[in-house]
Amino acid sequence: MVEVKSTACGACGALLLGDGPQPQHQQVTKLPRVQPEVTEYRRHTLTCLACGVANTPGWPDDMPMAVSGHGSKPRRAISVSAWGRISVISPKPARRSSTPR
Known about the structure:
By secondary structure, the protein is low in regular secondary structure.
């Protein structure tokens, strides 16, 4: 806790002592610095030597997905700006086509 008090009167300069009867409160939460951990997943397409069919496996079930333009399913993400603002980014719902009647 940090106590913030004036030590002298702003009008006349006289010494101020004690505590205010109802101090104003302001709480500030600081987030710890985040060190990202990057894991690259490589998905290989292999061609069967017996029949020639190309085989591409699915991504692992436990792999975290992010919003990307590469066919991955969008999931909610959290962003923290340099100023400490937190944003929760959710995927946009699919648009419904509107057809005139």
